[in-house]
């Protein structure tokens, strides 16, 4: 069975794609029963779409793959803590588990909700592995842009 570390490394591969394309480097994968069923990375600039976050792209891909709008048994691995928009989509997906690599003090859902969780009551939220690597990728991206 694959580990959280393995899946987060796959999400980091997606984040590096975003970085290479000049996007904020956030990547996501969705796993179900030991298999990655969806991947996504930020494509806001590429698609000229402010909703084209890694989580949103991965969610849409997972829904299409499964032919279902619910992901109760799935886990999302994302390199940065979700924003409020993505948290709302994750709520409606009823995803079983969310593992994020690094906190996002500026833009996470917590900026609007404080300590109140916007996720489905059955969703488990966990801080996972690869936090330093994820944060370093974001810091490098913004340092290059300044």
Describe this structure in words.
Helices cover 43% and strands 20% of the residues. It is an alpha/beta fold. Strands 2-1-3-4-5 form a five-stranded mixed beta sheet. Strand 4, helix 5 and strand 5 form a beta-alpha-beta unit. Helix 1 packs parallel to helix 6. The protein is globular. The termini are far apart. Catalyzes the deamination of adenosine to inosine at the wobble position 34 of tRNA(Arg2). InterPro entries: APOBEC/CMP_deaminase_Zn-bd, CMP_dCMP_dom, Cytidine_deaminase-like, tRNA_aden_deaminase. Its EC number is 3.5.4.33.
Layout of SSEs?
Layout: H1 4-20, E1 27-32, E2 35-41, H2 44-47, H3 54-66, E3 75-80, H4 84-93, E4 97-102, H5 110-113, E5 124-127, H6 131-145
Parallel strand pairs: 3-4, 4-5
Antiparallel strand pairs: 1-2, 1-3
Helix pairs in contact: 1-6
Tell me the quaternary state. Answer: single chain
Main sheet strand line-up: 2-1-3-4-5
Radius of gyration: 14 Å
Number of helical elements: 6
Query: What general outline do the C-alpha atoms trace?
Result: globular
Please report which band the strand proportion falls in: under 5%, 5-15%, 15-25%, 25-35%, 35-45% or over 45%. 15-25%
The largest β sheet comes out as:
5 strands, mixed
User: Structural class of the secondary structure composition?
Assistant: alpha/beta
**Count of individual beta strands:** 5
Cα end-to-end separation: 42 Å
Percent in helix? 40-55%
Mean pLDDT: 96
List the uncertain runs: none
Order of helices and strands: HEEHHEHEHEH
């Amino acid at each position: 069975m694959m580990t959280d570390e393995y899946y987060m490394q796959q999400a980091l591969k997606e984040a590096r794609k975003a970085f290479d394309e000049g996007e904020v480097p956030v990547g996501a994968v969705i796993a179900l029963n030991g298999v990655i069923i969806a991947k996504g990375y930020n494509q806001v600039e590429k698609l000229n779409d402010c909703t084209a976050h890694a989580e949103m792209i991965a969610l849409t891909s997972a829904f299409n793959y499964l032919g279902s709008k619910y992901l109760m048994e799935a886990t999302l691995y994302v390199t940065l803590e979700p924003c409020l928009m993505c948290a709302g989509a994750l709520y409606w997906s009823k995803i079983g588990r969310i593992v994020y690599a690094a906190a996002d003090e500026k833009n996470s859902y917590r900026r609007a909700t404080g300590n109140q969780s916007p996720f489905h009551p059955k969703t488990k939220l966990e801080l996972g592995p690869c936090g330093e690597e994820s944060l370093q990728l974001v810091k490098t991206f913004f340092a290059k842009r300044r």
